[in-house]
Amino acid sequence: MFGMAAGLALVLASPGAAVAGSGYAAHSVPAIRTTPVGHISYSANWAGYVASGTNGAFDQVSATWVVPALTCSSGQTSYSASWVGLDGWNSSTVEQTGTDANCRNGTPTYDAWYEAFPKLPTVCPFAVAQGDTVTASVTFAGGRFTVSLVDGTSSCGTTFLLRRAQRSSAEVIVEAPSSNHSFRGILPLADFQTASFGGATVDGESLAATSPIEVVMTTTGTSAGTVKADPEDSLNGASFSVTWFHA
User: Fold this and answer.
1) Does the first or last residue of the chain, that is N or C, have fewer Cβ atoms within 10 Å of its Cβ?
2) What domains can be seen in the chain, in order of their start residue?
3) What are the tens digits of pLDDT across the range 32-70?
4) Residues 8 and 137: beta-carbon distance below 8 Å
5) How far apart, in whole angstroms, are the C-alpha atoms of residue 154 and residue 157?
């Protein structure tokens, strides 16, 4: 595991929240293998849309999604995460919050979390279930980041200072988590069927208004690889979906 990011001066965790242990599937920066062609790029662990700009370009990202129904084969262990975040595309930090939908020995499991990568994620202290509607946001104001996730009547989040953050990108992503808190050791992608996002905004505008990069997840992180998950040019203003194709 990487150590705590330099400049992470303050973390205020929600009461009852738990920092994930070493056995927890970790989130990470993207494994990008190609330069974007037009507005499409390829990654071995991210699928979705990324607004990319200069340092300090973005202060807010938010989206709503339904926790997907998993298809878990008998005895299968695989992983997926849906999240919103700032940074990570062109930088080594990601300020993010989202939900995990994992198959554990063939049984679907779900949870919510927030994270200031490369610090380990903190798991929210409430149950998450298939079909829950989740709204998540990351906001920068007054020199601090605030991450917030709401699932029905339950919520969690934190506020922290991260001096090295660039705020050069904003994302709405489905990820194949990793075993070692980096894009190396990418774990099998759980069959989430379709992950549908709505209300996706960046700095108060629809995600589409940022002319974002479409990110396709493939086995190699290149256009030559087998597609694992793909938004399939489905962005319509503030809504889109990501379809699962391969573990």
Assistant:
1) N
2) 8-19+33-244 (2.60.120.700)
3) 656 666 789 999 999 999 999 999 999 999 999 999 999
4) no
5) 11
